[in-house]
Records
---
Amino acid sequence: MKYVIIGNGIAAAGAVEGIRSRDRESPIAIIDGEQRGSYSRPLITYYLAGKRKAEQMHYRPPAFFHQQGVTVIPDRAVKIDNQTRQVILQSGLVVGYDRLLLATGASPIIPEIPGIRQNGCVKTLYTWQDAEQLDLLVTPGQRAVVMGSGLIGIKAAEALYQRGMQVTIIEKQTQILPRLLSRTSAELVKEHLQDKGIEIITGQEVTRINGDNGVELADGRRLTAQLVIVAIGTRPNLSLAADCGLAVNQGVLVDSHLRTSDANIFAAGDVIETNDILTGYPAVMALLPLAHREGFLAGQNMAGAACSYPGGLLINSVHVLGMNIIGAGSPQIPGQTWLWQQGNHYLELVTESGRLVRYIALNMPQVTGPLTSLIEKQMEIQDSLWQEFISQPGLNRLPPMYWEAIKEVADNDSYRCRAI
Ligand SMILES: Cc1cc2nc3c(=O)[nH]c(=O)nc-3n(C[C@H](O)[C@H](O)[C@H](O)COP(=O)(O)OP(=O)(O)OC[C@H]3O[C@@H](n4cnc5c(N)ncnc54)[C@H](O)[C@@H]3O)c2cc1C
C-alpha cells in the first residue's frame, strides 16, 4: 500500500499517526507545499510578537517523520489524476498512490477592494513566512490597521501591539469576535482591548487602500496606516479536489469515514466540510484539535479501519492581552440565557430545554472543561440547578448528574473504530 498526503499541517501529522497505528511498514509520502515542515499555525502570532523562537514552532519535529518512515517532499501538488492514481507536482515529479489524503487546509480571503493588491503594505498573517515578512515591516510607533476581528485578527492585533505599533481594528459586524461572542461579552472584550490602547471600530468596512496614506472607510473616514493586515476569514483550498471531480461544497465533502466521493481519496482538516454535532448542520470548522483528530481517523481508515467521525463541536479559546476568552456551542440555537459577572470574570450560558447549547467564559477557564462536556453530552438539567450553578459558578456547583456522567468508561466512545 502506498500512502500520499498532500499538505504538511496538523491534519497530516494526525494522519501519519493514524496510518502507523495500523500499518508500520508501507511507504508514506507527504507533499509539503509550504516547505516549512510541520509547525503549529496558531503560534505564528507569538513568533511575530517575539514570544516564540523558530525552534519552538514545531508541531512534529523533523525527527518524527524520519522515525515514522515518512518521505517529506518539499513541493506543491498541482494536479490529481484519480484515474491513474497519481499526484503531479509543480516540479514535474509524479507521485503514485493507493490511498491519498487531502490535507491542504485553507487560505485567507482577500476582498476585492481598490488598492488591496497594489500596495506592499497590505499583508496577511496566516503562515510562518507571513510572520517572518511582517517581522521586517513592524516599526514601533507606526500605525497598523487590522481588517477583521475574528480570532486571527485579534491575535494579529495583539502581536503588533506588543511590538510597539499603534493598532486599529476595523470590524464590519457590529461587534468583535462575532463567531465566538455574544453582544454583551463582545463589549467587555472590546473595553478590555481599548483600555490597553487598541482602537476598535465596529460596523465599518475598509473600502479603499491608499498605500502609505492608509485606508478609507465606508463612512468616508480616512485612517493613516503604514501596515494593513487582512484577516476577514479563510476559505478551504478546494481547487485540487474540485479539478479532479471530487464532490465539494463549502469544503471537500466527506462521508462519516472521511472518505471523499472517490473511494481512494480521503480528506481531513480545514479543507473539509464536516458536521456540527450540536446543530446537525454542515460546517467548515477550521479548528486545530479537529484537524488532528480528523487526520488521525482518516489515516486509520486509509489503512483499512472503519473509524467513524460524527463531526465536531465549535469551540474556541483565545488569550489576548491578559484576558482568557473561551466559547463553545452554537450561536444559532435560541434558548434561555444565564449570566454571571464579577469584575472581569464573566460567564454566559444558553440552555434549550435544560440542555446547554452554548457558553462564553471570560477569565473563567476552570469551568470550561465541564461545560464543554455538558454540551457534548447534551444532558438535560433542571432550571433550578442551572440557577444554582450560575449564582456562583464553580466546579463545586456543577449538577450532581455531571459528576455521575463523567464516571462513564470509554465504551461510549463515539470515535471507536471497528476492527479491520
Ligand atoms: C494565527 C492563527 C491562529 C489560530 N489559532 C487557533 C486556535 O487558537 N485554536 C484552533 O483550534 N485553531 C486555530 N487556528 C486554526 C488552525 O491553525 C487550523 O485549524 C489548522 O492549522 C488546520 O490544520 P490543517 O492541517 O487542516 O491545515 P494547515 O495546518 O493549514 O495545513 C495545510 C497545509 O497544506 C499546504 N497545501 C495547500 N495546498 C497544497 C498543495 N497543492 N500542495 C502541497 N501543499 C499544499 C498548505 O500550504 C499548508 O501548509 C489558527 C490559525 C491561525 C492562522
Note: Residues 6-12, 31, 33-34, 41-42, 44-45, 76-77, 103-105, 125-126, 151-152, 155, 237, 240, 269-270, 286-289, 291, 318 surround flavin-adenine dinucleotide (CB under 6 Å).
---
Amino acid sequence: MTEAQGFWSVDLHEGAPSFFVCMACLNEVFWAKVPMPACPTCQEVSTYEAFTLDSIQDWGTEELIRKAQTASEEIPTLSPTEETTPAIVSTTSEDLSSKQP
Ligand SMILES: [Zn+2]
C-alpha cells in the first residue's frame, strides 16, 4: 500500500537555517518542513537538522545539493533585506510629473 507522503511544517526563525536534512541517509532535504512519518528515501523515522543552502552546497553530495536547490524553489519570497527590494510603484508616473513644481 502506498500512503501519501506527509510533512510537518517547521516554524522558521529569522536568520536560522531552513533546509532540513535527513540525518539517517543525508540524502533528503526539505525546505521548512520534514517528512512524516518517515523519510521517503530511507524509510527511517529520522532526525532532521537544519542547514543553510550554502552549507549544504559545502558538504552535500551532488544529489543532495540538487534536491536542496529544488526545495529552495518552494521558498515564496527571497527577501533577506527588504531595503534592496523597493516597493514597485504602479503606474502613477503621470501623477508624479504633475506634482513637480
Ligand atoms: Zn533518510
Note: The longest strand covers residues 6-9.
